[in-house]
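CHAIN AND CONFORMATION:

***
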Amino acid sequence: MTTLLEAMTCNPGSDSRNDVDRLDEPPLKALPENGVYTIVVEVAEDLDVEVGSLGIIHLERGYYAYTGSGLGKGALSVRGRVSRHISRAKRLKWHIDFLLSHPRALAVGVVASKASKEYECVVALNLAKGGFVKRFGCSDCRCKSHLARLNCRGLEECLRLVSSVYKSLGLEPVALVLSR
């Protein structure tokens, strides 16, 4: 069963406090400390965005799913990684950071589960069946991409789709709706 939680009215990444200070605050506290996560990104309009070593990528309006893992403590945990990625105040390091720094790309939801690293690539591969952005977010593995295009008509449908992939792999997902 997927646990769906509505985030509070503030975006957890909207203030300038240190990311680690927010790891035990709602709604991020509902996420597992370690495991795999997928951030659902809403692209409001077609956009071209420069993404570090990938150069300029084009994204059509719609929903996308970025999958990663957090297996350490603090900033290296699922909560730490998600908090960093959704924060607007950060040094741009990872591909997802470049995308989420664009004003027309917004993190609107998260699905996560306790899991080992091997699930990061399996989840990304299963989500990529609807299309993907080549080489995005996978510089440390041999995957084609960790950013998938989601074929869904709204956030809740996207969260159900991502959660169903987690469940098909035997994982127990928690889904969060982030405020917009």
Summary: Confidence is low (pLDDT under 50) at residues 1-23. The beta strands are 3-6, 35-43, 47-50, 56-59, 62-70, 105-113, 147-150, 174-177. DSSP finds four helices and eight strands in the chain. The chain has one domain: 3-177.
